[in-house]
Amino acid sequence: MIDVALASLIEDMIEKAGPDGVVEFWQRVGDNLASRMGKEAYLGWTSFNVAVRESRTAFSIEGEVTPLTDMAITDVDGDVVGYLYAMRQCCYNPTIFRTRFAVGRMSAADRTVTDEYNENIHNIAVCNFCVFHERFREEIAKNIAVSGNALACFLLATRGWSGETKISSKNVAQVNINEEHVRALLRNYECVYALVMRGARIKGER
Amino acid sequence: MSDARIPESNPFVEIATHLFLEDIATKVGVSGLNNYLVSLAKNLAGSMPKEEYGTWSQFLSALSTGQSILSTFEEVRPVTEHCMSTARSPFERGWREYAKRVGAFAPVHREVARYYNHKVRPAAVTSVHVVLHTFRDAAAARVRVGSDGVRYEPIASAWVDGEVQMPEEGKLEALLKRAGITRTRLGMLLRNHADVWLLESA
User: Fold this and answer.
1) How confident is the model at residue A15 (pLDDT cuts 50, 70, 90)?
2) I need a surface site. Which of A39, B43, B93, B168 has the fewest CB within 10 A?
3) What residue in B sits closest to A23 (Cα-Cα)?
4) CATH number for the domain whose boundaries are A2-197
5) From the CA of A93, how many Å to the nearest CA of chain B?
6) Is A32 on the interface with B (CB under 8 A)?
7) pTM for this one?
8) Sign of CA dihedral B95, B99, B103, B105
């Protein structure tokens, strides 16, 4: 029930700190949670992807994550430096439906925070939880090493409960993935992101 | 949850909310966090539709089939006409996931419960009980049975780790009498249930 109550808390926070204050708050919470998750190291992408499938990584706290091993990201030498990962269901979706059945409709505070983030930080959020979520993933990626290299996370695409989709042109270009491929993934997944080795010189990076 | 339409929450959202509350506590302290928790639980109950029932037995039926505001987030099993039990805490999954993925609960969750026990009523083991008791209290006030309102009182709360919180002896005896159960029955209920509470006409 605390997930449904969260919307009331955010309404209250908007009154006290404004939508920009709530965005800052959520991002700080993302930092704090990531810092408490500890470091991880894997011999290579195979062992990391198996760990993701078996829900053993810090990313698994979000729920079921699918490594899209047919969508590798390569560097200028043709070596694999990353993969795409996707979640069939957004973490916040059950809360939205629970709110629908318990309260009646989602608080307007959810949209206010989402819009604030999209207009001023990164136009990728479909709900207020994306604000926390994107920062959390970026921070935990720094604490995970694959073949001795720390990771970087790029949120590529999201699909909200109402069917609204967002694709980050900036991040899609950064990892050199075709936007149409990402759009196709949104038919089956609600959240798509890339994990790449930090500092890798990605082939065709735009 | 008896109503299959309501999906389970993703525990990650609960973990994030706990962290959100911890962050608030660093700014407003334990008493400030208590105020936030009370306020969010009241707002939640206030945003849910009011209810009316013709008789107490209709109300009990709605409670046990998950149709009442008081059984939206938890499965309520009436023990007597006025004594209710909750098989599992609605916060248990979130707590287990927090313990598994993040580590021990931050001390502020127990600190705010102690503050609530001292200032409001001795019914909380951890911060989520502040939300739970305040919500049930405010939700009960939105129900009418016949021409009467409904009043909520916690009798005992057993947390996931086995810690039990209940009022001092004198007050407990009076509550048990109003609930229509004995001290032995309470012990039996606490073995298998998260909470035991009282609902009566106001």
Assistant:
1) confident
2) B168
3) B20
4) 3.30.1380
5) 8
6) yes
7) 0.84
8) positive
Within chain A, residue ranges assigned H as helices are: 2-35, 45-53, 93-102, 108-120, 129-142, 169-174, 179-185
The reported pLDDT for the residue numbered B4 is 54
Tokens of B85: 């039990």
Helix (H) or strand (E) holding B108: helix B108-119
Span B86-130, pLDDT tens digits: 988 888 888 888 888 888 889 999 999 999 999 999 999 999 999
Cβ <8 Å between A98 and B7 = yes
pLDDT band at A118 (very low <50, low <70, confident <90, very high): very high
Residue of B13, B39, B48 with shortest CB distance to A102: B48
ipTM: 0.80
Question: How much is the pLDDT for B1?
Answer: 44
Residue given tokens 């809360």 in the structure block: A95
Asked if A16 reaches chain B (Cβ–Cβ under 8 Å), the answer is no
Q: Which residues of B touch A97 (CB under 8 A)?
A: 6-7
Contact assignment for A103 to B47 by CB distance below 8 Å: yes
Q: Where are the domains of chain A?
A: 2-197
Distance CA A166, CA A159 (A): 6
CA dist., res. B106 & res. A36, Å (int)? 11
Q: What pLDDT is recorded for position A205?
A: 63
B45: nearest CA in chain A? A103
Interface test with A, best of B9, B33, B86 (most A CBs within 10 A): B9
> Domain limits of chain B?
11-201
